[in-house]
Amino acid sequence: MIRALYNWTIRLAEHPKALWALAGVSFTESSFFPIPPDVLMIPMVIARPSRAWVIATVALIFSVLGGLFGYFIGAVLFESIGQPILDFYGKAEAGEKFANHFNSYGAWAVLIAGVTPFPFKVITILSGWTGLSLPIFIVSAIVARALRFFIVAGLLWKFGPPVREFIERRLGLMFTIGMVLLLGGFAAVKWL
Question: What are the residue ranges spanned by the domains of the chain?
Answer without folding.
Answer: 2-191
